[in-house]
Design a protein that fits this description.
Strand content of chain B: 25-35%
Largest sheet of chain B: 6 strands, mixed
Largest interface: A-B, 49 and 42 residues
Largest sheet of chain A: 6 strands, antiparallel
Number of strands of chain B: 11
Shape of chain B: globular
Number of helices of chain A: 5
Distance between the termini of chain A: 28 Å
Radius of gyration of chain B: 17 Å
Oligomer: heterodimer
């Protein structure tokens, strides 16, 4: 499963709200060759008259399934995401290209170095793909997720993360910046270097780190990780662009 | 034959004609890179061309500027589907650098502080097509945007414009760099959508 430039026709199976600002979209793609955790696709929309717009979206789905899952956040004033979140319906067809990306990717292997995923907001989507790949392979490589978000209502894949967290409480850490669930042990607050250190695998265990989110989130986390003593070659980052 | 997407209207841009296929105009300047951001001072900066038989040609910050800094206005196109039009840049043209380099080889591997690499044919760097750039829109390049100096090859997708540039190694044949080994196109012309291999 490597990067491929192949175009596929995808048929929308379901669109359901994931949060007030995001939808989970499932696509049926009979020609899909499968993909690794962390990979993405390009989605191309064409208007009557031929105008086209293309955007990249990470996949939450992994493996050989021909049913793909994307979680799309509505970007205010966006050109494509409001259409996908609000207007897309089952049986609509889209052109997609992929699977894409050979860097921000985790594959099961015999490598025993632990893996730390760090996500801000909708940056959690490729991390969900990696967690699913990890579960599907019954991998013994330790893998943890730190997920920073504003409020409980912004949580993507809440049930799935809850299941993973109850099987292994250390595996999933949530940090809420504006509002926490009731009876949450910590008050709301922006992620800091100290809370990052408290919720992630320490540099002495030499984890591989994957960081995904907005540019501001990723830049800040990368500088803290470097200050905490993680090696820059152990860190892989994916930043959301500005469109 | 493109598939019409039911109900999608999109926004056509008044800049159509300067926007390659699959691109959307942005007005901010998104940051994309694969890992941590190296912080290189202009005191420690050197730019080195390693030519045939490992002959090295090297310039420090002041020597590179002394080759002659140009100001110019260009459009940039990122493979992640954004284009930014009409940016004013300053930098030294690769023509000025290669005026003193003796080579018989036609390909280069651009090398960055932090380990990033990307392959570029010499013909895509010369004849006014490539620069070592120091400023964009009147501001010295920040580390996030590749400062203190980045390669700038505006006619190719922007991953070819290597941030934190430290040198070019001449090669007899084309070989893939960092992203090119990971599925991206060897050349990267935005007008023919050379995105993926």
């Amino acid at each position: 499963m490597t990067s491929g430039a192949t175009w596929h026709i995808a048929t929308v199976a379901t669109v359901r709200p994931l949060t007030p600002n995001a939808s989970l979209i499932t696509l049926g793609v009979p020609t899909w060759p499968g993909n690794d955790g962390g990979q993405h696709i390009d989605v191309r929309l064409t208007a009557e008259g031929g105008y086209q717009a293309t955007r990249s979206y990470s996949l939450a789905s992994v493996g050989n399934s021909t049913r793909l899952e994307l979680a799309v956040d509505r970007v205010p004033d966006g050109e494509v995401s409001p259409y996908l979140v609000d207007d897309l319906r089952p049986d609509d067809q889209l052109e997609i290209q992929g699977p894409l990306g050979g860097w921000f990717v985790w594959k099961p292997s015999s490598d025993l170095r632990p893996v730390q995923l760090i996500a801000g907001g909708s940056g959690v989507v490729p991390c969900i793909g990696m967690l699913r790949a990890h579960s599907a392979a019954q991998s013994t490589t330790p893998m943890r997720l730190l997920y920073g978000l504003r409020t409980p209502e912004d949580l993507f894949f809440a049930d799935e993360l809850k299941t993973l967290g109850s099987a292994n409480p250390a595996a999933i850490s949530l940090v809420f910046s504006r509002l926490t669930p009731e009876h949450w042990p910590d008050p709301p607050g922006r992620l800091s270097r100290d809370s990052l250190a408290a919720h992630t695998i320490g540099p002495e265990q030499r984890p591989r780190l994957f960081v995904c989110g907005s540019t501001g989130f990723v830049e800040t986390v990368l500088s803290w990780l470097t200050e905490l003593g993680h090696g820059s070659t152990d860190i892989r980052a994916e930043r959301f662009g500005g469109i | 034959m493109a598939l019409i997407t039911r109900g999608f209207r999109g926004r056509s841009s008044p800049a159509d004609g300067r926007i390659p296929p699959g691109q959307t105009q942005v007005h901010d300047w998104p940051v994309l890179s694969a890992g941590a951001t190296p912080r290189i001072s202009t005191d420690e900066f050197r730019f080195t061309v390693r030519s045939d038989d490992d002959t090295e040609y090297s310039w420090d910050w002041d020597e590179l500027h002394a080759l002659g800094v140009e100001e110019f206005t260009i459009d940039i196109h990122c493979v992640t589907h954004w284009s930014k039009l009409g940016m004013r840049w300053s930098g030294v043209p690769l023509d000025a650098i290669f005026a003193s380099v003796d080579t018989r080889q036609n390909f280069t591997m651009a090398q960055s502080y932090g380990g990033y690499t990307t392959n570029v044919a010499l013909s895509d760097l010369l004849d006014g097509k490539g620069w070592i750039a120091f400023e964009a829109d009147g501001i010295p390049l920040s580390p996030e945007h590749g400062g203190p100096a980045r390669l700038l090859i505006p006619h190719l997708y922007f991953w070819k414009s290597a941030k934190w540039i430290r040198g070019l190694t001449m090669m007899p044949t084309d070989r893939p760099g960092f992203w090119e080994e990971r599925g991206y196109h060897l050349h990267g012309d935005p007008w023919s959508e050379e995105r993926y291999s």
